[in-house]
Q: What sequence folds into this?
């Protein structure tokens, strides 16, 4: 304040004095030093080994946020329980998660904000039988399903019930910890059908066509596209807001950090889509079960699009209303308010 007032007085007189000039330079130097000191010692990005995390991995590998933090890490969560621990204990700054889980945690008091939705279509039925074209065709069959009571299971149940099918009675559901576990059951002939998320779908198809795995593994087929099934059954777009990125704790209140993250995530998502082979190599080197080729395949077929949470809110609201009507506990007992959607204005 004093500097500004003195400067105004100087402009009214003969100009800025040498002493004042020195003071202004020193002020700028102090501000620059403060900005440098504000650089974070560590920034943690977390997510599953799924398409939503590809940009996060690229951000770490490419040093996209090296000006923000001295060390930027990617931490993988393998099942919903690990995800919830990361969120509840504040062990990550930005975390990829299913949108319903984000809403559930928010409504239960976790300090988070949904920043964006990037995953709009990665769920498929995979089968040994090429004749199965709809969910009704799977009636009476055993199906491996990952993440019980979470996104894949929820979408499967909503689609089945909307067609008059009772998921618990009309299918033999075999729940497993993750899409990669379901993929392994398919490849090892332990099940004939599974609901998978990319890149597990492309990985299963690649593995069963490669030597020597192809000698023992079954031939598999990409069956029902659950996004198209969603559009057909509910007479809407063939997509749904499945997953995105949430900011936790102090990160959600740092507008500058959030803006920097959003820009870097959007740029890395675009990079992954235009450099699928290179993206495949970055991701696969972190997971033994994935191959670069399979990850590249998944990039080509996944519906990935960066949409800020405030912009995605209408589709999220519609999706959440369906979940709430089915089981309010899926969202923590209520629909999330405007505070959940980063950048949204209160109604």
A:
């Amino acid at each position: 304040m004093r500097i500004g007032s003195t400067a105004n007085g100087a402009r009214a007189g003969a100009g800025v004095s040498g002493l004042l000039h020195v003071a202004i330079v020193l002020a700028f130097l102090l501000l620059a030093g403060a900005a440098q000191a504000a650089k974070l010692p560590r920034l943690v990005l977390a997510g599953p080994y799924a398409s939503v995390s590809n940009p996060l991995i690229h951000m770490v590998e490419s040093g996209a946020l090296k000006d923000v933090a001295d060390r930027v890490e990617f931490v993988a969560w393998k099942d919903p329980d690990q995800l919830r621990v990361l969120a509840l204990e504040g062990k990550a700054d930005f975390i990829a998660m299913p949108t319903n889980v984000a809403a559930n945690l928010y409504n239960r008091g976790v300090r988070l904000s949904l920043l964006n939705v990037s995953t709009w279509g990665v769920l498929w039925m995979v089968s040994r039988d090429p004749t199965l074209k709809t969910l009704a065709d799977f009636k009476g069959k055993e199906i491996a399903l990952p993440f019980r009571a979470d996104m894949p299971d929820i979408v499967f149940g909503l689609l089945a019930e909307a067609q008059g099918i009772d998921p618990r009675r009309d299918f033999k559901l075999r729940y497993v910890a993750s899409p990669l576990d379901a993929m392994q059951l398919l490849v090892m002939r332990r099940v004939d059908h599974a609901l998978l998320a990319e890149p597990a779908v492309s990985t299963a198809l690649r593995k069963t066509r490669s030597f020597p795995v192809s000698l023992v593994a079954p031939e598999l087929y990409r069956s029902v596209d659950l996004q198209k099934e969603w559009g057909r059954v509910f007479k809407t777009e063939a997509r749904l807001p499945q997953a995105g990125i949430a900011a936790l704790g102090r990160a959600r209140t740092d507008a500058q950090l959030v803006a920097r993250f959003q820009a870097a995530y959007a740029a890395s998502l675009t990079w992954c889509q235009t450099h699928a082979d290179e993206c495949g190599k970055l991701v696969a080197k972190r997971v033994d079960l994935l191959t670069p080729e399979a990850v590249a395949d998944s990039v080509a077929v996944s519906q990935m699009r960066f949409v800020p949470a405030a912009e995605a809110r209408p589709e999220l609201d519609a999706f959440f209303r369906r979940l709430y009507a089915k089981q309010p506990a899926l969202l923590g007992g209520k629909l999330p308010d405007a505070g959940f959607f980063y950048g949204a204005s209160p109604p």
